[in-house]
Amino acid sequence: MSLTILKVDSSARSEGSTSRDLTNHLVDAFKAKHDDVTTISRDVAVGLPVVNQGWIAANFTDPAERTDEHKAALALSDTLIGELRAADAVVIGVPVYNFGVPAALKAWVDLVCRARETFRYTEAGPEGLLTGKKAYLVVSSAGVPVESEVDFATRYMRHMLAFVGITDVTVIAAGEQMFRVEEALEAARKQITVSVESFSRAA
């Protein structure tokens, strides 16, 4: 079975990052399990532009009427959305910074959540367009218990993914490392093993 995985890393640490180590471990586990795996790697921590006036103007201009300037403003967003569309599975490293997601990951979210591209408005409300995909949130924290009431990062990412149509989400948790680092990492690795063994394409 051929499989395309989009791996998104967002930790500000290029070395010594738990979330990066675990996203790599997850992708390697998939490669060991499946013969034909293509990986698209996107490191958002190197810097993404934030949404500004020019981007908003371009996005809300009818595609048939967009100028070259509009198209240039949306070019990176188009690329990021293309990576999402191409993926069967999405692996996202989510280090918890001050109870939420890193600014770089929020910038990625803003660039991929686009009306008519990844979601649309209907009479029944918003409808996600990126269906049929599986997502893995690799969540690491120093002190925050993952999926607790003060973990706004995991809740936010779950909601964002569902908003664009990705509702099959598994959380790989490596939380509270300040207090139990080895136990947290071992638990996360076990979750990865179980997740890869039980993988099936989302409906």
Automatic annotation (TrEMBL):
Protein name: FMN dependent NADH:quinone oxidoreductase
Keywords: Flavoprotein, FMN, NAD, Oxidoreductase
Catalytic reaction equation(s): N,N-dimethyl-1,4-phenylenediamine + anthranilate + 2 NAD(+) = 2-(4-dimethylaminophenyl)diazenylbenzoate + 2 NADH + 2 H(+); 2 a quinone + NADH + H(+) = 2 a 1,4-benzosemiquinone + NAD(+)
Binding-site residues for FMN, renumbered to this chain: S11, S17, T18, S19
EC number of this enzyme: 1.6.5.-, 1.7.1.17
Gene: azoR
Root EC class: oxidoreductase
Species per Swiss-Prot/TrEMBL record: Breoghania corrubedonensis
Assembly description: Homodimer.
